[in-house]
Write a structure and sequence with these properties.
By secondary structure, the chain is an alpha+beta fold. It has 6 domains: 4-109, Immunoglobulin-like (Sandwich), CATH 2.60.40.10; 117-307, Galactose-binding domain-like (Jelly Rolls, Sandwich); 313-430, Jelly Rolls (Sandwich), CATH 2.60.120.260; 436-774, Alpha/alpha barrel (Glycosyltransferase); 777-887, Maltose phosphorylase, domain 3, CATH 2.60.420.10; 908-968, no CATH class. The protein is built from 19 helices and 47 strands. Bound molecules: alpha-L-rhamnopyranose (RAM).
Length: 969
């Protein structure tokens, strides 16, 4: 019996989504098969309402002959509000098998029309309670329910931020709800199933309301009330009884209001909580609220409510502190061991009125003191005033902190050391599904990957923010744009970016210009590589998930951006006017400037072309023939003008910067001789800079791609493996646990880049992750078949200074693995291809007759197509797991460098033999094999090998010239 099953059934990217207002949701599934080469031949979807047995369906596709298994739009009768739809899927495959029905899944609709909102906005009566009070408001209401409750939902929202309570317990686990959108144009509401939390008889519901992004301090010092000056809530609770009747409880002026223990709470600044002011039982029935104030219906500037689009923000992990210590300045500091974003939860037994203060920071300065300088005016301060009743537990809400270190004041007995087990770090971010891992034989590169992932976690907080610590934390467009491909390898970003793009569209200006930050609270707009988020992000989401609807929804916005650019230049085909950030933070900037040396009009024109190309490709996908033609012609003109303006007749780029060369190559602005020359010059520029980059936000994401693509892959690898300033691994060696904003956020002498703008958790330079997945591990897709329907596996290990790499990506079709390993005599490539996809695999430098797949010679196996080329063997396979092995030709041996981890390069015996041969007496096993002693360089650094730098170089050369066979016999 063979096995074919339908699994991981999702609707709009989510498993059993509750409360969606999408009228034609899309269904996707993954296939499991124990036979190789499985392709779906047909599918059947059934949808039923109110029942799980599918006796009566409202939509049955019948057997549809199709290989489509993702993003299939519901096409049955019009859906109704507040209804649960059950669905299941069955498939047939090319091996003549029929699967069972999938497990039954569901989605539930929310409120489709604004008329269904019966609730009013409410806020405390300003005559009784100061609406501008910093204290969070409590709103409450009691209501009575009959027996026979069958189900209940609450639809709720608020501005700034709200949390819901029912009968004394919290509703849901979401934090920072309703999330951050362009509030005046669209505000999200959340849906919760509260059936289990209700009781027959009296119930009580409570709302806590704080400032948040809506009216708290944002962007500039003392700059508040950006969206409005009134906090308010709106909520509607529907109770359905077994007899079919329904009851609705809504917010209206019968609700009561008060303030409670939260005296202050803001995104940047933290929270002040006086536990003595807790109102015990306030969200339970029979609470005495006679002295509470009234509520009124305020005028609200909100025009549209939309159901939650993004995955919620939640606590996703809990960290234990690594240690605590007293700094030279005398502060007691907790070290979380990881630069994290979220909050501290602590426990304390303290006399009433004890004030415990936690101040959060990312790093210690070179003297070892906690450093707050880079936070600008964000206070990141949490104050707790104890009520003095037994053990008290506390964690702040409506705020988040970016920190590794926490200065603790006032904790009872802290002079004798902090009780570490009374503190935990709760990591908070948009709770996206993790979809990728990258690992290789180099521990520093692995740490870099971890840092990239932590950077993503810390900054994907409902909106892709630039940094989580200082008084900024805004949705900067370039940061999101340069990082998105890396981001979508690591985590599922479908709902996350769908929501953000709707805000981009909402905040885009009538002339097509795009604000610097989305949601737009900053005011600035335009700039090449920033506004281009409007085209790059929808296109990348489309490519990764096959999301044609998003592409179509964003199409007008994409086109408006390109047309905006088109009107800017002094010449229609060049973008040579206006404000640009340029190659932001590049190291070739003039003293005291943030802007790199690459001419802004060159960068702008390249991005003009890049956006136009994307628009043309989107028009192709959406079958807009006129636009395909229009933008193909426009693209050609831009490229032509670029060459006239920026490339000499002999093919030399006018701007001798790394970034100019990188983007010209990356975005196909040069061709033929000019292309060759650009690649050559780029390599020269980097060589002359001792294999160091000097690029900023614009050049860095593509530097290694441009080199690998241009024929200089070894240089790309050298750049990644550099660990002195400036480089990715320099930060890692300096102890970074997230990615820094500046190459020199911490300088080699331990001092900091200026206080003014120095984030230690900025994901932009983490965009190298994309190249690590795609080029080093070789996991990529054929761009003509989005969502990895056609996978491209092309590991590139030649010249690499490590011996293995492995990338896993959970795609819409299922898990893809690309993994390779080099040993002295063998190359092993392992590939996993999910059902209903195919993969083109390149086995570099392999000869057809030598390649095994599993135990069988490839040529005799059942792999269905292969061919030998000058690059190696190309195999096309269907789904399944494949283990390819072939002899390791000498050309594949990685070069031994001072950074090569010796025991990865050579096994134990070989290492001793080789080192004894080239430098008798230098090894002191077992030191060589401890985890610390990873490379020759480090052996020297930790004093295990008494060698000069020159001698190390000599040894490396010798090792690389060795006749291996001679040594190893
Ligand atoms: C900084 C932000 C962001 C960048 C802008 C131009 O303030 O941190 O990273 O995009 O400047």
């Amino acid at each position: 019996m063979t096995n074919l099953t339908v699994e991981a059934v999702t609707c709009e990217y989510r498993k059993n989504p509750l409360g969606m207002d999408i009228k034609r949701p899309r269904i996707s599934w993954k296939i499991q098969s124990d036979l190789r080469g499985t392709m779906q031949k047909a599918y059947q979807i059934q949808v039923a309402v109110h029942q799980e047995d599918f006796h009566e369906t409202i939509w049955d596709t019948g057997i549809v002959q199709s290989d489509e298994s993702i993003q299939i739009e519901y096409n049955g009768p019009q859906l109704e509000s507040r209804t649960r739809y059950f669905y299941r899927i069955k498939i047939w495959d090319n091996h003549d098998r029929e699967s069972d029905w999938s497990e039954t899944a569901w989605w539930e609709t929310s409120l489709f029309s604004s008329e269904e909102w019966k609730a009013e906005w409410i806020t405390p009566d300003p005559k009784q309670l100061d609406l501008h009070s910093e204290a969070a408001f409590l709103l409450r209401k009691e209501f009575t329910l009959k027996t026979g409750i069958s189900s209940a939902r609450v639809y709720g929202t608020g501005v700034g931020l709200y949390e819901l309570f029912l009968n004394g317990g919290r509703v849901g686990e979401d934090l920072l709800a309703p999330g951050w959108t362009s509030y005046h144009k669209r505000l999200q509401y959340q849906t919760y199933d509260i059936t289990e939390q209700l009781q027959v008889g009296t119930n009580a519901i409570g709302i806590v309301l704080a400032d948040g992004w809506y009216k708290g301090n944002l962007v500039r010092e003392d700059h508040r009330n950006i969206y409005g000056d009134t906090r308010a809530a709106k909520l509607q609770l529907h109770v359905t009884y077994h007899d079919g009747t329904e009851e609705i409880i809504v917010t209206d002026p019968t609700w009561k209001a008060a303030t409670g223990p939260i005296l202050f709470s803001e995104i940047y600044h933290g929270q002040t909580y006086d536990a003595r002011l807790e109102k015990e039982g306030w969200s339970q029935s029979h609470f005495h609220d006679e002295d509470w104030e009234d509520t009124i219906i305020p005028d609200m500037p909100i025009t549209k409510l939309v159901a939650q689009e993004n995955v919620p923000v939640r606590v996703t992990e809990v960290l234990k502190p690594m240690e605590s210590f007293v700094t030279p300045a005398g502060d007691t500091v907790l070290d979380m061991g990881q630069n994290m974003v979220g909050r501290i939860r602590f426990q304390v037994r303290a006399p009433k009125g004890t004030r415990i203060v936690l101040t959060h920071a990312e790093v210690l300065d070179k003297e070892g003191n906690i450093y707050f300088g880079n936070l600008k005016f964000a206070k990141q301060k949490v104050e707790y005033i104890a009520k003095g009743e037994g053990i008290e537990t506390f964690a702040p809400n409506f705020t988040f902190q970016g920190f590794r270190y926490v200065k603790i004041e006032g904790y009872p007995g802290q002079e004798n050391g902090l009780p570490l087990d009374h503190f935990i770090g709760e990591v908070i971010h948009s709770d996206m599904e993790s979809t990728g891992t990258f690992e290789c034989s180099d521990p520093l590169v692995n740490r870099l990957q971890q840092n990239i992932v932590w950077g993503q976690r810390g900054n994907f907080l409902d909106v892709p923010i630039d940094c989580p610590q200082r008084s900024e934390r805004l949705g900067w467009t370039a940061d999101a744009q340069v990082f998105i491909q890396t981001a979508l390898f690591n985590y599922h970003g479908g709902p996350f970016f769908t929501k953000w793009l709707r805000d981009l569209q909402a905040d885009q200006l009538p002339d097509g210009n795009v604000p610097f930050v989305i949601p737009n609270v900053e005011g600035g707009k335009g700039s090449a590589a920033w506004g281009d988020a409007a085209t790059i992000i929808p296109w990348t989401v489309y490519q990764t998930y096959g999301d044609k609807r998003l592409l179509s929804d964003q199409y007008d916005s994409m086109k408006a951006w390109v047309e905006y650019i088109r009107r800017q230049g002094k010449n229609e085909f060049l973008w040579n006017t206006g404000f640009h950030f340029g190659d932001w933070l590049a190291l070739d900037a003039k003293e005291n400037s943030f802007v790199g040396a690459t001419p802004k009009d060159l960068i702008a024109t390249v991005f003009y072309a890049y956006s136009t190309r994307i628009l043309r490709d989107a028009a192709k996908v959406l079958e807009k023939a006129d636009d395909v033609e229009e933008y193909s012609i426009l693209l050609n003109h831009i490229i032509e003008q670029f060459n006239q303006e920026f490339v000499s007749p002999a093919g030399r780029l006018v701007s001798p910067t790394q970034t100019a060369h990188i983007i010209a190559l990356m975005f196909d602005m040069v061709d033929g001789k000019a292309k060759e020359r650009t690649a050559y010059e780029l390599n020269e520029l980097i060589m002359l800079n001792d294999y160091h980059l000097n690029t900023g936000f614009v050049g860095t994401p593509y530097i290694c791609f441009a080199l690998s693509k241009g024929g200089y892959h070894e240089t790309a690898v050298k750049l990644l493996m550099k660990d002195d300033y400036p480089s990715w691994l320099y930060q890692v060696k300096k102890g970074a646990t997230t990615v820094w904003e500046h190459w020199d956020s911490i300088k080699p002498d331990g001092s900091f880049w200026s206080d003014q703008m120095n984030s230690f958790n900025h994901y932009a330079y983490g965009s190298i992750g994309n190249w690590m997945y795609k080029v080093i591990a070789g996991l990529d897709m054929d761009a003509t078949s989005p969502a990895y329907k056609k996978i491209k596996i092309e590991p590139k290990f030649a010249g690499i200074s490590f011996t293995s790499a492995k990338a896993i990506h959970e795609s819409m079709y299922g898990k893809i693995v690309s993994s390779w390993q080099l040993t002295n005599d063998q190359v092993a490539v392992e590939v996993v291809v999910p059902p209903n996809t195919t993969a083109d695999i390149l086995l570099p430098k392999a000869k057809l007759v030598d390649v095994y797949e599993g135990d069988e010679l490839l040529v005799t196996g059942d792999i269905y197509s292969f061919i030998e080329t000058s690059e190696g063997v190309k195999v096309t396979v269907g789904s399944g797991s494949y283990q390819f092995t072939y002899p390791n030709e000498e050309g594949l041996r990685p070069r031994f460098t001072e950074n090569t981890k010796i025991i990865d390069f050579l096994d134990h015996q070989e290492a001793v033999a080789v080192l004894e041969k080239v430098a008798p007496g230098i090894t002191k096993p077992p030191a060589l094999f401890t985890t610390k002693a990873r490379s020759l360089k480090e052996l020297v650094e930790i004093g295990e090998a008494n060698l000069t730098e020159d001698k190390v170089k000599e040894i490396m050369e010798e090792i690389n010239q060795l006749e291996w066979e001679e040594v190893l016999v």
